[in-house]
Write a structure and sequence with these properties.
single chain; 331 residues; alpha/beta
Length: 331
């Protein structure tokens, strides 16, 4: 479980009520301006390794025809913790090894790169209330300010381990250059202070580059030996930016599941309209079946409020829903 202490206590209580015969562990991580990314990524990976070393059975007897039942792990997280949980779920799911088979996420922050693009998809409609747009713009500004404090270099938030959405698609833009007069780490700061003369001459402003397409990636590659876990994602519509990220993350996860499930060559990529037109009826039915299975593997639950895992009656109901899903996934 990745989240705040209050969130963790609420989730722990609900999970215990489900009668799960499994240990429940909270993964703590450091994250502050003095401990920026990738520190939380390293902490979470270190905690995950500790769980595998100390809590999983050293040996297990494989059930006939069901070796995947051994050492099944589930992870859940919200907001920043949801992004870290998504990172762990997408990378620690190796076939034939102990790993994550289920991930429950609430309003996960899975893309630190393009807040404006995520916002535009959800609040630029004519019917969106003015107050709703203002709140969404305020959240975008707040997250941009937070990003400048939690990432020393722009390339750090372009890293898929910090922005798990980028495992599944391109970022849609180039990595911006770091400000030349701002040191990016302690060593560079010391070097700057020791210089006898330090003067930065600004260059002429260049025309802003056009945004690039957010093309899907073929993740995971068959060479990685990964099997994507199941996902249960909850998002609240009143937080338009996070809802937009959750909606896109769900869609791209389903595409990845369809690719991975395919045994034919066309199942390894996103099909364009011409390729779909050229398929025969049997291939169309097979694709439709894979898409149906992908929707079961990656579920999106939506509420009209913020949709948080909190102590409110609605929040507790959402935690209970998530806990039951985790229970079913691990049985």
């Amino acid at each position: 479980m990745l989240g705040t202490e209050l969130q963790t206590q609420t989730v722990f209580s609900q999970l215990r009520q489900q009668g799960l015969p499994f240990p429940i562990v909270q993964l703590n991580y450091r994250l502050s301006p003095s401990q920026p990314f990738p520190t939380p990524v390293h902490d979470v990976l270190r905690g995950y390794d500790w769980i595998k070393e100390h809590l999983l059975p050293k040996r297990a007897i494989a059930l006939a025809g069901r070796p995947q039942q051994m050492s099944r792990l589930a992870i859940c997280g919200e907001l920043l913790g949801g992004g870290l949980a998504a990172m762990l779920a997408l990378t620690e799911c190796r076939v034939g090894q102990p790993g994550i088979v289920a991930a429950a996420l609430s309003n996960p922050l899975v893309d630190w790169v393009d807040f404006k693009g995520d916002l535009a998809k959800t609040v630029t409609t004519a019917s969106a209330p003015v107050a709703f747009k203002a709140a969404s713009n305020a959240l975008t500004t707040e997250l941009q300010a937070l990003r400048s404090k939690l990432f020393r270099k722009p390339e750090h938030y372009f890293d898929p381990f910090a922005s798990p959405m980028l495992f599944l698609r391109l970022p849609g833009g180039a990595i911006p250059a770091a400000p030349p007069d701002v040191p990016t780490d302690d060593m560079e700061h010391l070097t700057q202070l020791n210089r006898e003369e330090f003067r930065y001459v600004s260059e002429p402003a260049q025309e802003e580059a056009k945004p690039l397409r957010k093309t899907s990636k073929r993740y995971p590659s068959p060479l990685l030996g990964l099997r994507l876990p199941a996902f249960h994602i909850h998002a609240g519509k009143s937080s338009s930016l996070l809802f937009g990220q959750a909606e896109e993350f769900t869609r791209r996860l389903r595409q990845a599941h369809v690719r991975q499930a395919g045994e034919l060559e066309f199942g390894r990529k996103v099909l364009d309209e011409d390729e779909i037109d050229e398929m025969n009826e049997s291939e169309r039915r097979e694709i439709a079946q894979r898409e149906m299975e992908a929707r079961k593997k990656v579920q999106l639950s939506v509420s009209q409020d913020l949709g948080m895992w909190d102590a409110s009656p609605e929040g507790r109901a959402r935690v209970a829903e998530m806990a039951k899903w985790v229970s079913d996934a691990l049985r």
